[in-house]
Give the backbone structure.
Amino acid sequence: MEKTNKKKVIDFLINNGVIIVMLILVIYTGFTSKNFLTWNNFSNILMNMSPRLIIALGIAGCVITAGCDLSAGRMIGFAACIAGTLLQKVDYSGKFYPNLKPLFPNAPVVDVLLVLALVMLITAAFGAITGSFIAFLNVPPFIATLAMMEIVYGLALIYTNATPLGGYLDSYTKVSTARFLGISPLIWIAIIVAAITWFIFNMTRHGKYMYAIGGNPQAAEVAGVPVKKTLVLIYMKAAAMYGLAGFMLGAKAGGASVNLGLGYEMEAIAACTIGGVSVTGGRGKVSSAIIGVAVFELLKAALQFLGMNAYSQYIAIGIVIFIAISLDIRKYVAKK
Amino acid sequence: MAEYKLELKGICKSFPGVKALDNVELHLRPGSVHALMGENGAGKSTLMKCLFGLYHMDAGEIYLDGEKIEIENPDQAMKKYGIAMVHQELQPVLARSVAENFFIGRYPVKKYGPIKIIDHKTMNSECKKWLNEIGLDFDPKEMLGNLSVGQMQSVEIAKAVSMNAKVVIFDEPTSSLSDNEVETLFRMMNDLRDKGVSMVYISHKMDEIKRIADDITVMRDGTYIGTWKAEELTTDEIIAKMVGRELTNIYPERSNTPGEVVMEVKDYTSIHKKSFKNASFNLKKGEILGFGGLVGAQRTELMEAIFGIRNIVSGEVYINGKKVKIKNPKEAMDAGIGLITEDRRGNGIFGCLSVKDNVGVSIYNKNLKYGFILNHKKINEIVTSSIEKLSIKTPSMKQHIANLSGGNQQKVIVSRWLATDPEVLIMDEPTRGIDVGAKHEIYEIMNQLAAEGKAIIMVSSEMPELIGMSDRIYVMCDGKITGEISDKNEMTQENIMKYATMFN
């Protein structure tokens, strides 16, 4: 009896190893650096997490169907650039469209929302194209999204001529700097998107079909699941979320360049898997993405506070991914 | 020299829940072709896999040239004892050359100090030499994938010869060969026999057995029935020995009465030449319609085509006299058809999902609030009631289906389809891989459904099951429907086997 209890404890520790190590690191950092456990820092971490969570939630859909999306990072960059070119101050000297004037000078928020909608529509259209290649022409997701990654980057370069953008309208940067009930709109957006995603995953046909396709695509087809349509929708939805994330990152940075978002797709895929989204498909929750992104951002922040060299941080992140995924896979392999 | 080249004695092998081999023996004379016969599931392939070291037998002894040997793995069987196997389904590397496949795992190398480099020249010339040895002439550099299945088999045989194999196992080698290729194969086998090689030949095709075999061993239900000289037995006698078993009464009493024709299938022909052709049949309300035949008779393919998973060049389906168009499973479901597939793991269950999701997947469409929110309450009710109705043993509907037994998984899939309320339910090998108790429960469910007026098609390779459960039986062979048996008295294993082996 004592033995089984001991085993249970060990299992619990191993199964939640990454989270436990993370908490220990956070507590340790909290004790050693006095500014770490402050509201200000916490708010900062949450603001960093917000766009990344949205990307991770988008990619989670792809990963649950045993796919991936390498085009996310470039879509984010393109989205941030489009939003940036359309939301610059009227008197800014390096304006991309010198003659562009706000459509609604008295209600600048409307302009910002319109641009957001436009950006999301554009990226969603690209996502629909990628999804169609995957669903109808059976191109493996890895390759299809790789192709789209190249195309989107090229389009972003042509569109901006590789010029960095800045001088944003206050109404745009306020998406990051404003405070509603004490927290930034960025965080609110992430909360809302997480809630909507949870709803889609659990309360709609689409979500159930997604899990079914990831679990066993042949069985899904036999069971009458509209596999192709669902796949297109998943990649389209994910791309719209990258558009939103790009828009948010632009607002947060107060500027953008084509290289914004580079490599974020890898971080998002890693975050999903750390949180428990299975790359072999069929498994994963909204909470998985939240945990994964939190682990990543807390790790980065803690290492920074502990004074770790910025270059070495990459190595630390790599090691965490190795360990986390090995532990996660262990849960499923051991069952056989 | 020992009387027998190879002897297997008292071989036993169990899989969880099944005794696949029970005290089986085999005596292989030098320089002979020994046919190993039996129904699907009689244990022929299992026995050969034990011999080849793919399975480890639980009990039994193997003697080679009168000496007892232990075979650990295929590599050892091949290299140490000269036992080779030409598989039922070949597993070659299609994207590499003939020579590379020929020498796979034993590539000739040139040594430059510590560095070893593959010697392509020797590889190609050696391969060519061995191919010529058995009268074949193709380019060793040809990509294997460009060859026909028969040619690939020939390469396997040449490989066996090159490795100085003394015993060669052929597991249904002719199932996908053209007539010409069969001739080539037989010529090669005759040559090998002249060279003193002993061969085990597994096939269902009686005419081939009569042509090529010297001895015949018959197996049934994992047991050894006997060994005879080929000329001592007639085809009918072989069949009688293969099927001669008593029907056990695991088939429950039925109270259904078949009524009007509910579904009619006309002239179904696959886009693949080797698959089903010109299949026409009808199905009545409240009827259990059996589909018999050997493995590979294309029954599954026909059913999947009716369900819209496979493509056809011609064919029509009528439901209640009305023509329906079925291009995908969704349309089949709309037409009132359900399909429980043969390969439960492959395209039946969603292993990592719950029992609820496994049942619900086919009905999420129809249980929505406001047109898009899942009505979880309603779905839970449906799932709970089907768990009760089919007495599925699961702690809760949230349990992962992978944790259930095979029989309970099958019942979950039955509930998935019952939830869609189909008129026609196609069950492909509904009791495969489940234990006797669960089989009985599945039979009872089928009877109950038939009594409620549902029409059931049951594809089954187990003849007692076909005879015990069906109101009427169609038998297929080689893609064609070769017989219909509607008279209960005519439903004998001999009759079914006769139709099932009606090649051309």
About this structure: Residues 2-335 of chain A form a domain with the ABC transporter involved in vitamin B12 uptake, BtuC fold (CATH 1.10.3470).
